[in-house]
Amino acid sequence: MLTPGPFATVQDAGRTGWASIGVPRSGAADRQAAALANRLVGNDPAAAVLEATAGGLRVRAERTLLVAVTGAPVPVVVDGRPAPFAAPTTLRPGAVLGLGTPPVGLRSYLAVRGGIDVPPVLGSRSTDTLSGLGPAALASGTRLPVGGLAGDEPVVDVAPVAAPPERPVLRVLPGPRRDWFDDAAWPALLAGAWEVGAASDRVGLRLAGPRLGRSRQGELPSEGLVPGALQVPPDGAPVLFLADHPVTGGYPVLAVVVTADLPVAAQLRPGDVVRFRAAR
Amino acid sequence: MTGSEGGHRVTAYGDRAVLVEAADPAGAPGLHAALLAAPLAGQVDLVPAARTVLVLLDRPVTDRDLAALRGLSPTGTSRGPAPDPLVLPVVFDGPDLAEVARRTRRTVEDVIAALTGAALTVAFGGFAPGFGYLTGLPADLHVPRRATPRTRVPAGSVGLAGPYAGVYPRASPGGWQLVGRTDAVLFDVDRDPPALLAPGRPVRFRAVG
Q1: For B86-207, which CATH superfamily applies?
Q2: What backbone phi and psi angles, to 5 degrees, belong to B68?
Q3: A256 contact B CB<8A
Q4: According to the model, what pLDDT value does residue A154 have?
Q5: Contact between residue A36 and residue A69 where contact means Cβ atoms under 8 Å apart
Q6: Hey, is B111 helix, strand or coil?
Q7: H/E element holding B173?
Q8: I need a labelling partner for A32 at 20 to 30 A (CA). Which of A45, A176, B83, B209 fits?
């Protein structure tokens, strides 16, 4: 790792099965893009990849490696020459691969055939930025071992990938505590233009928009959360949870983004405007 | 999307999860135990909480899942010999111990005696890896959280909040009333099991030092 860029971590499919002792799932924020990167290099779906936030990452291959970059569309450069995006690329020993800055979207994924082989913690190599489990965020000079989590030689040459939408819309289902909100809250959620706040991170998107009024005051006993849950704290600014969400939360959840749209949510960046649409 | 057969409510939570809510907090562990014993197809994890169990699936939720969960029979959690309680050695010198004594109109010695005499149980976790919400405190030891949370509570701090006692597995911000500290390692990823305080585990505090 020559430079991680603004922020980069190792991510895989996350830690499942530990919620009852308070361990979040974590894992790649845009799972679809991470899975595609693994597929392009013929990796097991459980292999770990690098998640680069806002590009900027540069790595040097110590031996011949097959790699692929997916997610936020980003210029890929190998030894100063443009290299393909969302296609398998061979790096010769000593080659330097660099990511530019994605014009749209936030998180790009770099898969290496064999997977990033840092020691797993509770069955996962993911960095959990909330609970501190897993490897530290990547720093310049970190050596990243490559493992053996590869299957057959990849057969996909290039994957057609859609760029993140210009006007992102997330489909939502009513949340488990919609009855804690007044009748105007759900229509206000769907009508509003929501701006993604600067404090957004892998834990969640902090959104600014219309007021979402409560019909029930008081505290909700803590209950489980999922990625895509839109929780409304007393200050009224909703949080849309992403991969590193806490296991439980004590504020009511008004809406839940459908699983198919979580990759869109994971690619939103501060300043973007997002809208919600009822899934049915 | 909701139902109330069996005294619990069942609500779809997005397209891959279902929230099962017990009629009262005492009912949640039985629902958790039943789902552990007989998981739904594609069940990847369970999140037991104060009065709910969230069922996480790796596939879309169907009407059959909702019907199955409405018909769920809570499993008795007291069958078989109760496991030996986990004894946590605690130095009762917390910065809020005097405040807890004042609020509960006890002497400090009486607070310590009540805490070491209580048969506690890990009701659920979720706040942080290895944290357990312990129930079983005498009702007159229920104290509110501090009005102003501390920005840093040291690892091992033993605190009280509402009906719960708890131990901070690692340093974090926190608003519980701190009565003591333990050097027990609550969470260690290289240990099996990693958490000392898993739901259902009986716990006692023993005064040391």
Answers
A1: Cyclophilin-like (2.40.100.10)
A2: -65, -40
A3: yes
A4: 80
A5: no
A6: helix
A7: strand B172-174
A8: A176
Task: Give, in degrees to the nearest 5, the angle at Cα B117 between B114 and B123.
Answer: 95
Chain B partners within 8 Å of A243 (Cβ): none
Judged by CB atoms closer than 8 Å, whether chains meet at A228 and B45 is answered as no
Residue A219's pLDDT band (boundaries 50, 70, 90)? confident
DSSP one-letter string for A143-205? ---B-S-B-SPP--S----PPPPSS-EEEEEE-TTGGGB-TTHHHHHHH--EEEPTT--SSEE
- CA A20 to chain B, closest CA, distance in angstroms equals 5
pTM of the predicted structure, to 2 decimals: 0.93
Given a contact cutoff of 8 angstroms between Cβ atoms, the answer to whether A257 and A265 are in contact is yes
Whether the domain at B2-70 and the domain at B86-207 fall into the same CATH topology: no
State the average pLDDT over residues A153-161: 75
* Residue contact A22–B170, C-beta within 8 A: no
**Amino acid identity, position A38:** N
Radius of gyration of chain B (CA): 19
Our CA-based measurement puts residue B46 at a distance from the nearest CA of chain A, in whole angstroms, of 7
CATH no., domain B2-70: 3.30.1360.40
User: Which residue does chain B place closest to A173, by CA atoms?
Assistant: B14
The pLDDT-based confidence of B79 (bands split at 50, 70, 90) is low
Spans of all domains in chain B: 2-70, 86-207
With CB atoms and an 8 Å threshold, state whether A19 touches B45: yes
Contact indicator for A153, A259 with CB cutoff of 8 Å: no
Q: Which residues of A touch B195 (CB under 8 A)?
A: 21-22
Which residues from B are below 8 Å from A170, CB to CB? Answer: none
Portion of chain A with pLDDT greater than 90, in percent: 89
Global ipTM: 0.95
pLDDT, chain A, mean: 95
For A49, B14, B147, B195, the CA distances from A26, given in Å and listed in that order, are: 13, 18, 32, 18
For residues A11-28, average pLDDT? 96
